[in-house]
Specification:
- One of its GO terms (molecular function) is ATP binding.
- It comes from Actinomycetospora straminea.
- Pfam families: ABC_tran.
- The chain is α/β, with parallel strands linked by helices.
- The chain has two domains: about 170 residues, P-loop containing nucleotide triphosphate hydrolases (Rossmann fold, 3-Layer(aba) Sandwich), CATH 3.40.50.300; about 70 residues, no CATH class.
- Strands 6-7-8-3-9-10 form a six-stranded mixed sheet, with helices on both faces. Strands 2-1-4-5 form a four-stranded antiparallel sheet, covered by helices on one side.
- Strand 1 and strand 2 form a beta hairpin.
- The N terminus is likely disordered.
- The structure holds adenosine-5'-triphosphate.
- The site of adenosine-5'-triphosphate (ATP) has 12 residues, from strand 2 and helix 1.
- Adenosine-5'-triphosphate binds next to strand 2 and helix 1.
Length: about 260
């Protein structure tokens, strides 16, 4: 399989400047500044409701900032022409907690779904009858450790295997960045650890930027080179794990005082 296009080390892939997001009056994020460069592996942590999913959605353009700006691969996704934004989004692969797969389809089709957007309509439609680019799908499944599942019906796989299919689906996209929103929240700790190891290894091997939101702080501190902590919609700290103290973590997860 061809490797992802990693980009030059140090190249700015994501720039979040003074960004805020409000949903119908609810402040999900405010005043966020963040730069992520090519090849970095970043964990986003913070208590429930802190804005982790919203930050991931800002980076892939699923949500537009209500304040400030966000650029991904040099493109302001909220303001760029739709065609340009689509092209940039195709270079960002996102993995979700609930796998985002069609259970009734065979694994080969779910993996191919990662690149449907890059194919002309006729090829995408034909591929549902006779799968296209099977060699690359097989390569991606080998990379995630389940090549024998190519023809299996997705519904017959375990949770850990489904998340591996979701990773393979992103790999065939040959993304420059992989975003993962709570990718292990539905898995037991052992399988979760395996999926995080897989993602960090792929990121290191291909030089692909990885940004993952996580509830598991030990995993974030042990397996990532940078930890961004959110609390009540603000970035509380942004450091290498070695510079994060147990006091930092206690403060981060302490109950938020109600406004008086
Ligand atoms: N579509 C939405 N409409 C309204 N409010 C929303 C929406 N999505 C998120 N919120 C609110 O925005 C805030 C941040 O939510 P977000 O899901 O980003 O946090 P999170 O840190 O990912 O939480 P969790 O760890 O529980 O998944 C929360 O107060 C949430 O209720």
């Amino acid at each position: 399989m061809t490797s992802g296009l990693s980009g030059t080390a140090g190249e700015l892939l994501f720039a979040v400047r003074g960004a805020g997001v409000r949903y119908d009056g609810v402040v999900a994020l405010e005043g966020c500044d963040l730069e992520i460069t090519a090849g970095e592996r970043v964990a986003v942590i913070g208590p429930s409701g802190a804005g982790k999913s919203t930050l991931i959605a800002l980076l892939n353009g699923m949500v537009a900032p209500t304040d400030g700006t966000v650029t991904a691969l040099g493109c302001d996704l909220a303001r760029a022409p739709a065609r340009t934004a689509r092209k940039v989004r195709r270079q960002i692969g996102t993995i979700y907690q609930h796998f985002d797969l069609v259970e009734e389809l065979r694994v080969v089709h779910n993996v191919n779904a990662g690149r449907l957007g890059a194919w002309p309509f006729w090829r995408a439609a034909l591929s549902l009858v006779r799968p296209s680019g099977v060699g690359e799908v097989r390569g991606a499944l080998e990379r995630v450790g389940i090549p024998e599942k190519l023809d299996a019906r997705t519904s017959t796989l375990s949770g850990g295997q489904k998340q591996r299919v979701a990773v393979a689906k992103v790999l065939v996209q040959q993304p420059r960045a992989i975003l993962a929103d709570e990718p292990i929240a539905s898995l037991d700790p052992r399988l979760g650890g395996e999926v995080i190891d897989l993602l960090t290894e792929i990121s290191a091997d291909l030089g692909t930027t990885l940004v993952t939101s996580l509830h598991d702080v030990t995993m974030a501190l042990g397996r990532f080179e940078r930890v961004v902590a959110l609390r009540a919609g603000r970035i509380e700290f942004d450091r290498p794990p070695g510079a994060v103290s147990s006091g930092d973590i206690e403060d981060l997860y302490a109950a938020v005082e109600p406004a008086s």
